[in-house]
Amino acid sequence: MQKETVWSRSFIMICITNFFLFKTFYTQVAALPVFVKDKFSNNATEIGLVLILFVAGSVLSRFFAGLLMSRLGHKRLLLLGTAAVSIGRCSISV
């Protein structure tokens, strides 16, 4: 009988992918207040509201991601999400 290991190729690839996805999200959370203040010259209350809406949208979208995951499958949704984030990040940097 072959012993299964936790640190399989698939597990490591999922960990690396999740690292970059979360890095992207938290980089945006850290940079968003500075961007809003520089671009729109808003006060602290409005900057806080923008951050609350951003995080709330992120949390609420996870419910829909769960539904999509059950319909499309884990791997397909992970690949689609990675592609969407990559395209979004490339479009921001241009």
What brief labels describe this structure?
94 residues; elongated
How would you explain this protein's 3D organization?
The protein has 94 residues and is mostly helical. It has one domain (9-93). It contains three helices and no strands. Helix 1 (9-40) packs antiparallel against helix 2 and helix 2 (44-72) packs antiparallel against helix 3. The longest helix has 32 residues, at 9-40. The protein is elongated and about 65 Å long. It starts with 8 loop residues before the first helix and ends with a helix.
The total domain count is 1
Q: What can be said about the biggest beta sheet?
A: none
> What is the number of helical segments per DSSP (H or I, 4+ residues)?
3
The oligomerization state is single chain
Q: Indicate the structural class.
A: mainly alpha
Fraction of helical residues: over 70%
Strand content: under 5%
Shape: elongated
